[in-house]
Amino acid sequence: MKMHFLAGGRLRIRKSIYLPTADRSETFELPVTSVLLRHAQGNLLFDTGCHPDIATDAQSRWGSLTKLMTPVMTKDDNVIVGLAAVGLGPDDIDVVICSHLHVDHCGCNVFFKRATLIVHARELAAARAPDGVAMGYLPIEWDHPLPTDAIEGECDVFGDGRIVLLPLSGHTPGTLGALVELERSGAFLLASDTVSVRETLDEGIVPRNTWNAAALVKSLAEIRRIAARGATVICGHDPRQWQTLRRGAEAYE
Question: What are the tens digits of pLDDT across the range 121-147?
Answer without folding.
Answer: 999 999 999 999 999 999 999 999 999
